[in-house]
From TrEMBL, chain A:
Gene designation: pyrR
Keywords: Glycosyltransferase, Transferase
Listed InterPro entries: PRTase-like, PRTase_dom, PyrR_bifunctional
Protein name in UniProt: Bifunctional pyr operon transcriptional regulator/uracil phosphoribosyltransferase PyrR
SUPFAM superfamilies: PRTase-like
Automatic annotation (TrEMBL), chain B:
Protein name, per record: Aspartate carbamoyltransferase
One Pfam short name: OTCace_N
Binding site residues for L-aspartate: K87, R170, R224
Catalytic activity: carbamoyl phosphate + L-aspartate = N-carbamoyl-L-aspartate + phosphate + H(+)
Ranges for domain Aspartate/ornithine carbamoyltransferase Asp/Orn-binding: 157-302
């Protein structure tokens, strides 16, 4: 196994600031916008972005929720393992809101497809946008593209993109792993 | 650990501690799901489940059916009263006929103990026991433990007394297995005639004085007197049973601490518990019913995920 650093902590920090500014450009004071982190891995990025928007860019009433898509996935009973769920934490209204999905890596697009179904259980949003830190292009199974992307990566299917966060793995870093 | 160790839920006896913990963690997620504006997930949309009820049921049948529908499974219902069982068809024939219509899972209630174990050896489908005679009622015990966990934080180390007709109760047996598995202390309390002779072999203690038992416990699970299973008289009169083993508000208020009251339903109001107890804040009877749907969703989901494509 070999791994290559795609983004180091400094690069991630710069990208997070850029993504935060792009969000502000489109969503102003976030009064009609909610951020939804896709569980499990998208929650780290979502929390980090929310924190940045609050502290550095003085957004006061920012609504952040976490959405678990396990029960909406299209690969139930197709793999070897039972799909294990994570918690969903959405304690605000979705109806008529602008929703921004936040995930770390966009790969086949299937998770986002599931998230699009899952969010409907909470109401009918005005529109839904997608923000991802890494966009693995050329590997999409569905017609889904991000509205905000941190870095576009050309990786072949045998490779894996691993995103580490200080909160979880003790470092901010994105690796390209080859088996 | 993210998979059940069993392919059927025949009884708590066949589960291990990790299975119970996995079911509870999954039920936590489903409890959140059933409190959403849209209470349905598409996971089981390609699964068909048959509910076979060879014995009457209201709560369990509704709860299973709701759980199945909230998971998007297709559901067929069968009750023995309106079927060919009356014409002399055997259990295996009945079930095989239903399975030939491409059914993936069977939820069965049957008056004979061991019916679901028997069935699991002869047919090719996942089976969930929804009560077999006086043997086991595993989903009831799971939802009871889940409700205790929700109310008191955890089941381990808690003192639980099961009061009433232990002899005829599948709820009591499944609860004893489930509570012991999770490290709770269990006592049974009731008239001597309704306590099985060797019940202590299951690791429980016996108490015939209700007040002593209530003063000891954190949770009292009040069972229904099952008149339909009693072929002889086990106590002189209902009135005398109520005086000795019925819980009323005055008795609860006179205890040293506030205990939690549970009841698997249906309640004989005024017999095992009075109305003011059943409707009080100490009772979690309706929480048990709500948790029943979430726990059954978890069991069905986890068993269904072992059905390979």
């Amino acid at each position: 196994m070999s791994q290559k650093v795609l983004l180091n902590a400094t690069a991630i920090n710069i990208i997070l600031h850029r993504l935060a500014c792009q969000l502000i450009e489109n969503h102003d004071d976030f009064s009609n916008t909610v951020l939804i982190g896709i569980q499990p891995r998208g929650s780290f990025l979502a929390k980090r972005l929310a924190e940045l928007l609050k502290t550095e860019y003085k957004i006061k009433d920012l609504k952040l929720g976490l959405l678990d898509i396990t029960f909406y996935r299209d690969d139930f009973r197709r793999g070897d393992k039972t799909l294990t769920a994570n918690s969903t934490e959405i304690d605000f209204e979705i109806e008529n809101k602008k929703v921004v999905f936040i995930d770390d890596v966009l790969y086949t697009g299937r998770s986002i497809r599931s998230a699009l179904t899952a969010i409907q259980s909470f109401g009918r949003p005005d529109d839904i946008e997608l923000l991802t830190l890494i966009d693995r292009r050329f590997s999409r199974h569905l017609p889904i593209q991000p509205d905000y992307r941190g870095r576009q990566v050309d990786a072949i299917n045998e490779e894996k993109v691993k995103v580490n966060w200080i909160e979880n793995e003790g470092e901010d870093c994105v690796y390209l792993v080859r088996n | 650990m993210s998979e059940l160790s069993v392919n059927h839920l025949l009884g708590i006896k066949y589960l291990n501690k990790q299975d119970v913990e996995l079911i509870f963690q999954t039920a936590d997620h489903f409890k959140e799901v059933i409190n959403r504006p849209i209470k349905k997930v598409p996971s089981l949309r390609d699964i068909t489940i048959a509910n076979l009820f060879f014995e009457n049921s209201t709560r369990t049948k509704l709860s299973f059916e709701l759980a199945e529908k909230r998971l998007s499974a297709d559901v067929i219902n069968f009750s023995a009263a309106q079927s060919s069982v009356k014409k002399g068809e055997t259990l295996i024939d009945t079930v095989n006929n239903i399975l030939s219509m491409k059914v993936d899972m069977v939820v069965m209630r049957h008056p004979n103990p061991g019916a679901s174990v028997f069935l699991s050896k002869h047919i090719n489908a996942n089976i969930i026991n929804a009560g077999d005679g006086a043997h086991e009622h595993p989903t009831q015990a799971l939802l009871d433990s889940y409700s205790i966990r929700e109310r008191l934080g955890e089941v381990a180390g808690k003192n639980v007394v099961i009061v009433g007709d232990i002899l005829h109760s599948r709820v009591a047996l499944s609860n004893i297995y489930a509570l012991k598995l999770q490290g709770a202390n269990v006592k049974v309390c009731g008239p001597k005639t309704l306590l099985p002779k060797y019940i202590e072999k299951l690791g429980v203690t016996v108490e015939t004085d209700l007040r002593k038992a209530l003063n000891w416990c954190d949770v009292a699970n009040m069972l229904r007197v099952q008149n339909e299973r009693m072929d002889i008289s086990y106590f002189p009169s209902t009135r005398e049973y109520t005086q000795q083993f019925g819980v009323n508000k005055a008795l609860l208020d006179s205890l040293d601490k506030e205990i939690t009251i549970m009841h698997p339903g249906p309640i004989n109001r005024g017999v095992e518990i009075t109305s003011d107890v059943a409707d009080s804040k100490q009772a979690i009877i309706l929480d048990q019913v709500q948790n029943g749907v979430a726990v059954r969703m978890a069991v069905i989901y986890l068993l269904a995920s072992k059905l390979k494509q």
